[in-house]
Design brief:
3 domains; mainly alpha; Serine Threonine Protein Phosphatase 5, Tetratricopeptide repeat; single chain
């Protein structure tokens, strides 16, 4: 699978199932392969087969959650990811996907503890950190959001969206100079960042207006 030789992967997974038809792992692996191929209906059948063999197969619930999430069925995805957690899957990815499922349903506050757990389990995941920062900002926890976006920059100094959101957080603090600096940084790393360009232009217009009034 990692080498993108999907046909050979399918053959080997099928062999594993034939050799151990009562082992849910083979069905989960085949389901993940089908998921990788965007064959959601067949993937779900394999995950359900794994759960018939072992109702506590947490990674099968995780696979079902990913299938639902990819099809934008976020309530169902949330349910499956929660089942994965309830049956003992203690990995950053499942907490991140559970949080994202809630976020897509505009349950920002409910998503926060799951984002927090995801970054506790994998503090090097800049994507999870960034999404956690957004959720904090969307629940008006601006100072915590700013601190989280700075952690993203610790991992990747060129993260343009983190710079932009730090700029916005400084506007909340009425620190225009720092906001301008981070909007400029965002544009330095991503010249077509429209939100950063608009933020920078708004500050320029405001300063020009102040100068005219003087």
């Amino acid at each position: 699978m990692q080498e993108q030789d999907l046909q050979e992967a399918a053959r080997l997974f099928n062999e594993a199932i034939e050799e151990n038809p009562e082992d849910p792992v083979g069905y989960i692996n085949f389901g993940n392969l089908l998921l990788h191929m965007n064959d959601y209906e067949r993937a779900e059948r394999f995950f359900h087969k794994a759960l018939e063999l072992d109702s506590n197969a947490a990674t099968a619930y995780f696979g079902l959650g990913n299938a639902a999430f990819d099809q934008e069925d976020y309530p169902t995805a949330q349910q499956h990811f929660q089942q994965a957690v309830n049956t003992g899957l203690e990995e950053a990815d499942v907490y991140l996907m559970l949080a994202m499922s809630l976020q897509h349903q505009d349950h920002q506050r409910l998503s926060l503890p799951y984002f927090q757990r995801a970054v506790e389990l994998n503090p090097e995941d800049e994507s999870a950190l960034f999404q956690y920062g957004l959720a904090l900002a969307q629940t008006d926890q601006i100072e915590l959001a700013q601190q989280t976006f700075f952690k993203v920059l610790d991992l990747n100094q060129e993260h343009s969206d983190a710079h932009y959101n730090i700029g916005v957080s400084y506007l909340y603090e009425e620190d225009v100079d720092r906001a301008y600096k981070h909007f400029t940084k965002a544009l330095e790393y991503q010249p077509d960042h429209l939100l950063a360009a608009n933020g920078k232009k708004s500050i320029d217009d405001m300063l020009n207006q102040d100068n005219l009034e003087l």
